[in-house]
Amino acid sequence: MPEKIGVVTRREFIKTAGGSVLAAGTGIAPAIRSAERKAAMQTKKGSIRALAFDAYGTLFDVHSVISAVNEKFPGQGLAVSAGWRTRQLEYTWLRSLMGRYEDFWHVTESALVAACNALNLPLDTAARTQLMESYLHLDPFPEVKQALKALSHVPLSILSNGSPKMLHAVVESAGLEGIFTHIISVDEVKIFKPAPVVYELAVKKMGLDKDNIGFVSSNFWDDAGAKAFGFRTHWINRTGVAEDELGIAPDITLKSLTDLIGLVG
């Protein structure tokens, strides 16, 4: 019985962790009219001169692995994907707190093994290799290409927990090569988001003051970290979930990346 409660809690957690198909509910994210949002942003010091995007859950759907999981473990795709993503995030936070960094590829692999063990699924070497490979080919969310094209009048970058290998592979797989001025990995500082030094990487790479950088993430905790650092933050709340109680909130909540168009530049 306790294990069942744990699974439910993890699935609920996924709602605020950049989930897509796993997130329950179809509520509409809180939003005000585009003109009012833009006016609100313009009242802040400086203007947004570049955008930095989170990758996993924001540009790329982490739960697009479900089909690959179902090929190996029929009917288990949803449960494995939920546990995999939850542990992946938990392990980044725990490793950061313990000062025991491993790159995101190894963290992701450890999370996969733990998720399968929790469900008593036999993950042999071949299955592990195939499922890890699927993480290099995650699907972009439907609006990503159109939105990035429309926003290309300002420099666009990725700021992600992902390792360089993972990020370059998923960008290439999604047909997004050449769009980003910088693809920035936490691997340079050997600690994961939401450590402030990670967001400082974007300032250094992009050559801008932090209040001139707009940060975009579907993960509330990531937006909170970026806002605490000093970025102008945009929460992509595709599923209309409630805000977390972290004592800080994103500057703007949007329903999709296309809602950014017209707000920047």
CATH homologous superfamily heading of the largest domain: HAD superfamily/HAD-like
Tell me, what's the shape? globular
What share of the residues lie within helices? 40-55%
What's the total helix number?
10
Distance between the termini: 53 Å
The spatial strand order of the largest sheet comes to 5-4-1-6-7-8
**Oligomeric state as shown:** single chain
Task: Describe the protein's architecture and organization.
The structure is a single chain. By secondary structure, the chain is of the alpha/beta class. It folds into 2 domains: 155 residues, 3-Layer(aba) Sandwich (Rossmann fold), CATH 3.40.50.1000; 75 residues, Orthogonal Bundle (DNA polymerase, domain 1), CATH 1.10.150. The strands form 2 sheets. It has a 6-stranded parallel sheet, with helices on both faces. The chain has a two-stranded antiparallel sheet with strand order 2-3. Helix 8 links the parallel strand 4 and strand 5.
